[in-house]
Amino acid sequence: MPDSTTNTAPSPLNRAAPLLLITGVLLGLTFPLGKLSGQAQIPPAVWAFLVAAGASSILLMIHTLQGRKVNISKEYLQFYCISASVSLVIPNLLIFTVIPKLGAGFTGLMFTLSPIFTLALQSLTRLKLPSALGLAGISIGFIGAIIVASTRGEVGQPASIIWLLAGLGIPASLAIGNVYRTLAWPTDASPTELAIGSNLAAASFLLIVVALQTGFASLQTLIFNPVLSLTQMIVAALMFHFYFRLQLVGGPIYLSQISYVGAAVALGTGTLLFGERYSQITWLGACVIIVGIIGSVVAQRRST
User: Fold this and answer.
1) What is the pLDDT of residues 31-54, one digit of tens each?
2) Cα separation of 96 and 83, whole Å?
3) Helices (H), the chain
4) pLDDT tens, 249-272?
5) I want to staple 262 with a disulfide (CB 3.0 to 4.6 A). Which of 28, 47, 53, 93 is the partner?
6) DSSP 158
7) pTM of the model
């Protein structure tokens, strides 16, 4: 089981706060890339497959060149499959399906609900809860998320309640995955190893979805968009490398707050790159979310 107190190395990449910011920024880049994939007529299932396959293939290549192997014992395979299903397959399919309906920025903001979902689930287990300041940061971020959600998307393009409910499936699934990985983390497993195995499992599941939904011929859409596809592969590999490390160092609740950082990045890129327009209330909510991030980072630093 990961424990935030087990890793005391001085490197910034072994500290929760820098990992939170790095992973959150990389997560935020996923949304504009996902919108570009939709504009390129790449099916959502194909793009979700690329995320998992790209991350696992790049990380596996580096892992192998370092002379390391990926454990495939029963305990590890079970972890890979369950982690892949609740943390990668379901959320990715939902993300790239609702982006055309909710917008890249607003879909990113759906992630901001995952900390409160994760907190609720963690409170039902024996896992350690955050400090009072940490809980305050989560609560403030949640208030910001509620403010944003009340605006229902881009100006002049309010989303239907059905698509909002579909979007809520993203943080709910992520929260389940956050808590599960902490509870089921194999003894002495490395973050990179679990990132590779989980993404390989996700890619396998998503390939089946692709075959059933659009057929293998739809994978050609990736070849027709090589720069976009390669960019997403690199971003995914970097994100999951830091994502699983953050899980080990910070725990499930702190990990879930990458959604706050990712949402801010997604909202900014959606506005700057795609001309998405959001109301002043949406931006107010985004500012409240940032205050929540600051509170959580300060709380984490005080606890280490």
Assistant:
1) 889 889 988 999 989 999 999 999
2) 19
3) 16-39, 44-65, 74-84, 90-102, 104-110, 114-122, 132-150, 161-184, 191-213, 220-223, 226-256, 258-274, 280-303
4) 888 888 888 887 887 787 788 777
5) 28
6) E
7) 0.80
Provide CB contacts within 8 A for 293, sequence distance 6+. 137, 141, 257, 260, 261, 264
> What does the alpha-carbon distance between residue 165 and residue 29 come to, in Å, rounded to a whole number?
23
Q: Residue 156: how many CB atoms within 10 A of its CB?
A: 7
Q: In this structure, what token pair is assigned to residue 147?
A: 């403010």
- Cα gap 56→195, rounded to integer Å: 7
In angstroms, the CA 293 to CA 266 distance is 15
Amino acid at 242: F
**Cβ(199)–Cβ(233) below 8 Å:** no
Summary mean pLDDT of the chain: 82
Domain assignments of the chain as residue spans, ordered by start: 12-303
